[in-house]
Design a protein that fits this description.
The chain has 254 residues and is of the alpha+beta class. Helix content is 33%, strand content 25%. Helix 5 crosses helix 6.
C-alpha cells in the first residue's frame, strides 16, 4: 500500500512538471507569420454577414477596451499579440468564464524547457464575483506559445463569438446539457485563427470530444459522435444556430 502511495505521488509530481514546462513540439511562430491580410479580411466580411443580434455582445466592449489598455501599458511585443483566449458559456448563452493572456517581452523566448516568459492577463469568472480582473506583467513558466491574433482584433473576435452563443442556446433548447468552451487557435492553414469548441470540464465525461469552428465558412467540423441520439441532436443544434456541420474522420482532417 505504501509503495502505491509513493508511486502515485511520484506520478503526480511528474505530471505537474510536465504541465508547468509545456514545450510545443513545433516552435510557435510570431503573428506576422500566421496571419495573411486577405484571410483576416475574410473574417471581417463573414462577421458583416452575421445576423444582427438584439442582445449585448458576449464580452462587454468596455472590457475589450480595458484589455487593450492593459496590453498598451505592459506589452512590448510587435502588434501586441494574444497567445491564450478562452471563453466558457453558461447554459443560457451568457459568459461564464474568460481568459486572455498577452505576452509582454519584445522578443520571443526560445522554445525550450526551463524557459519562462512575461505576460499580462485578464480573466473573468462568473462564480467568483463576476468582475473582470486585470493583472499587469508577471512571469509564467514555459516558453512563448502561438500568437493567435492581435489585441487590436479583439472587437472582431468578440463578434465571432455570437454564432457560438447561438450554438450554446441551441444546445440547451434541444436538451444537450453541455456548457461549451471555445478556445481560439491558429487556423490549420496558418493564415488566420479558428476556434476549438468542446464541452467544458464541468460536463465530463465528454460525449462531444471536440469540434472546430471556422467563422469564414460558417462551419463546424467534428469527428463522428458514437451516441446516435447525441449525434442527431448536435446536428439539429448546429442547424438551429445558423451554421453548417461537416463530419471528418479525425481531427487531423479538420
Amino acid at each position: 500500500m505504501r509503495l502505491q502511495v509513493v508511486s502515485l505521488i511520484a506520478a503526480t509530481a511528474l505530471s505537474s512538471i510536465a504541465l508547468a514546462y509545456h514545450v510545443p513540439q513545433v516552435a510557435p511562430r510570431p503573428l506576422r507569420e500566421t496571419q495573411d491580410a486577405a484571410a483576416v479580411e475574410a473574417h471581417r466580411e463573414a462577421v458583416a454577414r452575421f445576423p444582427k443580434s438584439s442582445v449585448a455582445p458576449v464580452i462587454d466592449p468596455g472590457w475589450i477596451r480595458q484589455i487593450q489598455e492593459l496590453a498598451a501599458k505592459n506589452s512590448n511585443r510587435e502588434v501586441q499579440p494574444v497567445e491564450v483566449f478562452k471563453v466558457v458559456f453558461k447554459k443560457d448563452g451568457g459568459l461564464a468564464h474568460l481568459e486572455v493572456v498577452i505576452p509582454t517581452s519584445a522578443t520571443r523566448t526560445p522554445n525550450q524547457a526551463g524557459q519562462s516568459h512575461g505576460i499580462c492577463s485578464a480573466d473573468f469568472d462568473f462564480k467568483k464575483g463576476g468582475k473582470l480582473r486585470l493583472k499587469d506583467e508577471t512571469k509564467v513558466e514555459g516558453p512563448d506559445d502561438q500568437e493567435i491574433f492581435a489585441v487590436a482584433q479583439l472587437p472582431l473576435v468578440n463578434r465571432e463569438l455570437e454564432p457560438l452563443r447561438r450554438l450554446q442556446k441551441a444546445f440547451s433548447n434541444i436538451g444537450l446539457k453541455y456548457t461549451l468552451e471555445a478556445d481560439a487557435m491558429v487556423a490549420p492553414d496558418g493564415k488566420s485563427w479558428a476556434w476549438q469548441v468542446a464541452s467544458s470540464e464541468e460536463q465530463m465525461p465528454n460525449i462531444i470530444y471536440a469540434m472546430f469552428y471556422y467563422p469564414v465558412l460558417g462551419e463546424l467540423h467534428s469527428t463522428p459522435i458514437e451516441n446516435a441520439k447525441v449525434r442527431q441532436k448536435v446536428g439539429e443544434a448546429v442547424k438551429a444556430a445558423g451554421l453548417r456541420l461537416t463530419w471528418v474522420k479525425s481531427m487531423e482532417d479538420r
